[in-house]
Each structure stands twice: as C-alpha cells, then as structure tokens.
Amino acid sequence: MSKNKKVETFHISTYGCQMNIADSSTLASSLITRGYRRVKDEKDADLIVLNTCSVREKAENRIYGRLGEIFKYKREKPHMKIAVVGCMAQRLGDELIKKVPHVDFVLGTDRLFELPDALEGIEGTSSVMTAFGHENIDMIAPVKDSDYSGFVTISRGCDNYCTYCIVPYVRGKEVSHSADYIVDAVKKMVDEGVVEATLLGQNVNSYKYEDTDFPKLLTRVAKETGIKRLRFMTSHPKDLSKRLVDVMADDPTIMPHIHLPVQAGNNRVLEKMGRIYTIEHYMKIIEYIKKTLPYVILTTDIIVGYPTETESEYEETLKVVSEVRYDSAFMFRYSVRPGTVAAKFDDDVPEADKIRRLQKLIKLQQGISYEQNQQELNQIRFSLVEGYSKRDKNKMRARTDGNKTVIFEAHGLKNGTIVPIRIKAADAFTLHGEVVEPN
Ligand code: 5AD
Ligand code: SF4
Fold it and tell me: Is 209 in the pocket of ligand 1 (CB under 6 A)?
C-alpha cells in the first residue's frame, strides 16, 4: 500500500477522566465535519488517535503499550497516521516523538482540536503542538456523547496545584466558559434529543464568569434549557458552598449525586497535599449535604501512601470513610508525577505498604458500598436507559438518579427513556430491579 494514500477514516481511544471523553467527542465531530469517517475497529482506521491521561504513571505506561500494538498495524499500512493527544502529549511534547518515532502528531490539551488542520498540513500547524491558548475558549463547540447524554465543559484547567497532581501543568490555568455559551450548548443538545447533561470542570465550584458563580450557573442551566437531568463534577471541598447544596435541594432537575474528593483523612497530610481544607471542614460540608438533601449519593477520590504518611495518619482516612459512608470511591496509591511539588518529597512509604493500605481501604469501602446499596432495596429510582447489559444480553442497563448502574428485565426500551425501576437486589457494584408498570 502506498505511503501517499489519503487518510479517510479515523478511530479515537479515550483514556482518563470525563474531560477527555468530552474532548474526544468534540474532536470526533470536527473530523467528521471535515469529511473523515469514524470506524469502529482501530485496525480499519487510517488515523488512530489516543486521547491520553497523565494523572498516574500507570495511565502513561498503558499508552506506551498501546503504541507498540498500533505500530504493528502501521507496518502493514504505511499511510496510517498516529496521533497522541491530550495530557500525556502536553506533558511530554517533543520527547514523545523522540521516544516513539512512529507517532506522527503530538497535540496537547488545548491544541487537539487542531488535529484536522495539522493532518492537512495547513499553514501554522506542525506535528507537535503544546502551547496553551484558550483565549477563544468559547469557540470550542461541545458535542453530545451519545444520542441521549452530553458533557459540557464549563471550565478548562485548574489553579489549585495540589502538590501530587500533574493536571494544572498539563491543562493550564483555569478559564471559565461564559454562562451564555454553556446555556446555549445545553439548549442545542436538548433540541437534538439529549435528556441528561453533565457539567464538567476540574473544580466546578470555582467556576466564575462575570457575576455568575457555579450555583447561579447550575440554576440557569436547570431552568432555561429544558434538560431533564443535570449532573456536575468534580467538586472541591474548599469551594463547595451551602448555596450549591440549597440549589440542589430546590431543583429536582439536578441529580442527587456529589463527587467530593477527600484525598486523605489527616490534617497534616491534607496540608502537605495542598488541599487547603481541614478534615473538620470537610465533615461539616458532608453534614450539611446529608441534612439538606434527603437522598444523596456521595462518592470520593482517595490517595494512600502519600510521602511521609504514617500508619496512624492512614487510619484516619479509614475513619473518615467509615463515618461518611460513601456509596463508592476511586482509590489510588500515590504515584510520583515528575514536575509536581510532591515529586521533590522523599517518597518514603514502601511500595508494599502502599499496596497493603490500598487493599485494606478497598475492602472497607466495598463493604460500605454493599451496605449502602442494600438501602436501595424496594425503593423506586427513576433511571435513564443506556442500552443492553454487557454481561446478559437479555437484560437492559440504566443509570439511577444517584448515578448507580441498575440492571433490569426489559426489552426494546429506547435508550434515553427515563423509567421508574424498583430495586430488588444489590451487590457492592450494581443494583438489580424491575420496571414499575403504571397502574
Ligand atoms: N497519585 C495518585 N493519585 C493521584 N490522583 C491525582 N494525582 C495522583 C497521583 N500523583 C488522584 C486524585 C484525584 C484523582 C483524579 O486522581 O485522587 O482526585
Ligand atoms: Fe489536580 Fe487538585 Fe486541580 Fe483536582 S483540584 S485537578 S487534584 S490540582
């Protein structure tokens, strides 16, 4: 096959957080608009895009593994182009092409939308682009993620510089989209049949555009767009206000789920992480949320084995987990990210201790998730149908208002329908139920 054959088809694989899923959707729509065709199987694509994550070392190692696999396709198909975009592209830039020479494009977090231009060799573009430049942030059109749900990025970047975190370095300074842009984007999605929108930001609570803060924005989107279900993530405990919780209590459009990363249960560790809040402050917010929202699903992120974390400090994390009783949690052992403040700390917790701490925490949380899910039994949860169950093709899958997956017996329900489901059984990860038939 000739090296000069034109690129006609593409495939995008997305790694990491919802922000990347949203960016991939936007990139896909711009490629489609330019005449490229999306294919389901990577092997059939002329252009393979990996939208990457840098948050932990494991995420980056996985990409190197994938690039090795993809190289095999390129050997058989010399005209194939490979693009690495997103956080890892931003972090490594030129270095990535030096390390993996068969990569054709390296486009950072603010530049991935220029991939169609770079591909066509349009003037001003090059194969490695990592400069930040989100002055024209409102020019990036959001797109729906599926026929019934969409992500809308309300702010890009992060100003918090938690000491362990690479995100501020790879996503740059926080910049908020205008409230009108966000309201319009959701309205457009609703016109196209979307019933559930998720507003995304590294720290949605610090959203600010002119005199609109996050509670105001959420109210506007809930009231002005006609969206049926509204979600948001991620929240930062230092900025989550009582007003936000009050807005959630007042508007049934806003789904009762708050993802509030605690990261650690000990104040010295929190301070070393640069999290700015104390655990007492965090617990006060949790108390207010539970008092104000009669039904709320709480989820979190936790890091164990932070440099200098002692065994008893780690146990304070376990205590918080037992007290808050999260419905689920993303739990990690600390991973050094070069270039962050914490990378200069002595990573003195032995790997074996990190692993043991993580396993014990996961076990504790799984027990709590199981118990929390038992509380759902016999309740009716309005749930959004997302398709057929992956494990059992005779069953369908839906998402409850609290963002839990429920598997139920039904056939032929259209994706995107919202149905009342009575929960009949539950394990630590999934609910099982049946559709409540109208009387
Ligand atoms: N090591 C381990 N976990 C990390 N996270 C972010 N950076 C690191 C790191 N260096 C976790 C945090 C964050 C989530 C998205 O990833 O818990 O909230
Ligand atoms: Fe990273 Fe902290 Fe910003 Fe979250 S708030 S993206 S953990 S720096």
Answer: no
The 10s digit of each residue's pLDDT in 37-65 is 999 999 899 999 999 999 999 999 999 99
- CB of 206 sitting under 6 A from ligand 2: no
The rounded radius of gyration (Å) of the Cα atoms in the chain is 22
**Strand 149-153 relative to strand 175-176: parallel, antiparallel, unpaired?**
unpaired
Ligand 1 nearest-atom number relative to CA 164: 10
Closest ligand 1 atom, residue 166 Cα: 7
CB 165 near ligand 1, within 6 Å: yes
Cis before 234? omega within 30: yes
Q: Which domains does the chain have, with CATH numbers?
A: 9-129 (3.40.50.12160), 140-374 (3.80.30.20), 380-435 (2.40.50.110)
Ligand 2 atom with least separation from CA of 263: 7
Residue among 275, 384, 402, 379 nearest 326 (CA): 402
pTM over 0.85: yes
- Which element (helix H / strand E) includes 21? helix 18-33
CA atoms within 13 A on the CB side of 275: 25
pLDDT of 135 over the 80 cut: no
pLDDT over threshold 60, residue 139: no
Residue 240, exposed/middle/buried by CB under 10 A (0-12, 13-18, 19+)? buried
Among 369, 261, 353, smallest CA distance to 313 is for 353
Q: pLDDT at position 136, please? A: 55
pLDDT tens per residue across span 2-33: 556 789 999 999 999 989 998 998 899 889 98
